[in-house]
C-alpha cells in the first residue's frame, strides 16, 4: 500500500514538472508580433551584375539543408530504387491552360522532382521516357546523375507536342529496360 502511494506521488510530481516545463516553453515563444522580427531584406545582396538570384539561391540552399537536417529518421536512404519517369508529349500537352504551356510547366516541375529524388535517394537510378504519336522513346538511360536528367528535361520542354499518348507502349519500354 505504501509503495503504491509512493508511485502515485512520484507520477504526480513528474506530471506537474512536465506541465511546468511545457508552460515555460510556450512563454518563451510568445506571440509572433511580440518577438523580434526577421530582417530578411538584410540577407539579400546584389552581385556584380545587379542580380539578386545568387542571394535567393543561397537562402533556398540553406533552407533545403535545414530541411534535410530536420528530416524524419525512419526513411530508408540505403535502398536502391530504379524509376522511369514517363513524360506525355502528346498534342494535349500543348494546351496553354498552364503558362506557357503544359509540357513546359510539367518539365519545370519534373526538374524539381529529379533534384528532390536524388537528395532523398542518393544511390538510386532514374530514367526518362516520353510518349507521343502512340510511341514511347527513351530520353535518358537509367543513371544517378541528376544534371543529365535535368538537361534532358530542358531540351524536351522545347519539343513540339503531337499525336496521342500511349501508356502501354511506355510501360513496355520501361519494363524492357528494367530487365
Question: What features would you describe in this structure?
Answer:
By secondary structure, this protein is α+β, with helices and mostly antiparallel strands. The protein has a domain at 80-179: Rossmann fold. The chain has helices at 2-29, 53-69, 102-120, 146-156, 167-178, and strands at residues 82-88, 125-132, 135-143. α3 (102-120) runs antiparallel to α4 (146-156). The longest helix is centred in the first third of the chain and has 28 residues, at 2-29. The radius of gyration is 26 Å and the shape is extended. It starts with a helix and ends with a helix.
Known CATH architecture of the domain at 80-179:
3-Layer(aba) Sandwich
Biggest sheet, strands in spatial order? 1-2-3
In angstroms, what separates the terminal alpha carbons?
69 Å
Fraction of residues in β-strands:
5-15%
Estimated helix fraction: 40-55%
- Biggest sheet: strands, sense, closure? 3 strands, mixed
CATH topology name of the domain at 80-179, in short, is Rossmann fold
* Helix/strand class: alpha+beta
Can you count the helices? 5
> Which geometry do the CA atoms define?
extended
What is the level 1 CATH name of the domain at 80-179? Alpha Beta
Oligomer: single chain
Order of SSEs: HHEHEEHH
Radius of gyration: 26 Å
Mean pLDDT metric: 79
Looking at CATH, the homologous superfamily of the domain at 80-179 is: von Willebrand factor, type A domain
Indicate the low-confidence ranges by residue numbers.
Answer: none
Could you tell me the number of beta strands? 3
Pfam families: Ssl1 (PF04056)
Protein name: General transcription factor IIH subunit 2
GO biological process, one term: nucleotide-excision repair
GO cellular component, one term: transcription factor TFIIH holo complex
Amino acid at each position: 500500500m505504501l509503495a503504491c502511494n509512493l508511485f502515485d506521488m512520484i507520477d504526480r510530481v513528474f506530471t506537474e514538472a512536465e506541465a511546468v516545463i511545457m508552460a515555460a516553453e510556450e512563454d518563451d515563444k510568445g506571440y509572433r508580433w511580440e518577438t523580434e522580427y526577421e530582417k530578411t531584406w538584410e540577407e539579400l545582396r546584389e552581385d556584380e551584375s545587379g542580380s539578386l538570384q545568387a542571394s535567393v539561391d543561397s537562402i533556398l540552399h540553406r533552407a533545403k539543408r535545414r530541411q534535410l537536417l530536420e528530416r524524419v529518421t525512419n526513411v530508408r536512404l540505403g535502398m536502391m530504387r530504379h524509376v522511369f519517369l514517363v513524360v506525355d508529349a502528346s498534342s494535349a500537352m500543348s494546351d496553354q491552360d498552364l503558362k506557357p504551356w503544359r509540357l513546359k510547366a510539367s518539365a519545370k516541375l519534373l526538374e524539381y522532382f529529379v533534384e528532390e529524388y536524388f537528395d532523398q535517394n542518393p544511390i538510386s537510378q532514374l530514367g526518362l521516357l516520353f510518349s507521343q504519336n502512340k510511341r514511347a522513346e527513351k530520353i535518358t538511360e537509367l543513371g544517378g546523375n541528376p544534371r543529365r536528367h535535368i538537361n534532358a528535361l530542358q531540351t524536351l520542354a522545347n519539343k513540339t507536342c503531337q499525336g496521342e499518348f500511349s501508356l502501354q507502349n511506355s510501360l513496355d519500354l520501361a519494363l524492357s529496360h528494367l530487365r
